[in-house]
């Protein structure tokens, strides 16, 4: 009788063990299925890569260096003020650019561009055949970012808005010549006479070649460099 009870108990224990093992197997299989579905979902999720938030704000131009556009006619010499257009480069988070793939979207100049091809070479991303084929190009930049570029790797600039900045008569103008071989000119006095003497072609300043330096809300320096 005792042996029979022992045998029955042993059978019950074995059955319980088998049931527990089956339950564990089912749970593990379910977890693996969930992980697989999650991986598939992540793989199929399409990114929409947008530019980083602008670091320049027109209401707080106190101490900064800006890419700008203006002409000689935008100076108000009586009030000592210059009205100019402020621009910013389009920068992107490097981790997002490095993760971009076909069928994702990237926003440049407020335009959504569907990605159908990507080439990468030495921190240089060529999307949809590059600029010459109507596509896009980005190069590695500072601070863990990429910036969109145009021909000759010039940055793509977007217009932020217009601002009027006061200046003093100690305004410094560092200007390139009309030709690449021309010497750089530094003007520390008679700024108006210098600017008004420029040829018509050279009277326009643009964000590709011009930055201004502002200190305590006052325009201190205009720097223009020769570009191709």
Molecular structure report:
The structure is a single chain. With 228 residues, this protein is α+β, with helices and mostly antiparallel strands. The chain folds into three domains: 1-45; 58-87 and 161-224, no CATH class; 91-153, no CATH class. It has three helices and 16 strands. It has helices at 2-44, 94-99, 191-196; strands at 48-49, 64-71, 75-76, 81-89, 91-93, 105-108, 111-114, 118-120, 124-127, 136-141, 145-148, 157-175, 185-187, 204-205, 210-215, 218-224. The strands form three sheets. Strands 2-4-12-16-15 form a five-stranded mixed barrel. A five-stranded antiparallel beta sheet has the order 5-11-10-9-8. Strands 1-6-7 form a three-stranded mixed beta sheet, with no helix packed on it.
């Amino acid at each position: 009788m005792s042996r029979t009870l022992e045998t029955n108990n042993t059978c019950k224990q074995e059955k319980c063990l088998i049931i527990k093992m089956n339950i564990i197997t089912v749970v593990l299989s379910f977890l693996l299925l969930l992980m697989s579905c999650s991986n598939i979902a992540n793989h199929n999720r399409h990114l929409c890569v947008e530019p980083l938030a602008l670091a320049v704000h027109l209401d707080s131009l106190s101490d900064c260096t800006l890419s700008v556009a203006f002409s000689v006619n935008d100076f108000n010499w009586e009030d000592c003020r210059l009205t100019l257009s402020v621009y910013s480069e389009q920068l992107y988070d490097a981790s997002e650019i490095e993760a971009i793939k076909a069928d994702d979207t990237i926003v440049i100049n407020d335009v959504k561009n569907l990605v159908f091809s990507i080439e990468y070479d030495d921190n240089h991303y060529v999307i949809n055949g590059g600029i010459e084929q109507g596509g896009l190009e980005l190069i590695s930049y500072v601070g863990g970012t990429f910036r969109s570029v145009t021909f000759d790797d010039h940055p793509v600039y977007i217009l932020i808005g217009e601002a009027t900045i006061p200046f003093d008569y100690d305004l410094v103008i560092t200007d390139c010549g009309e030709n690449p071989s021309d010497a750089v000119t530094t003007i520390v006095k008679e700024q108006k006479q210098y600017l008004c003497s420029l040829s018509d072609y050279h009277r326009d300043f643009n964000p590709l070649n011009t930055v201004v330096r502002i200190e305590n809300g006052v325009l201190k320096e205009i720097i223009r460099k020769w570009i191709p």
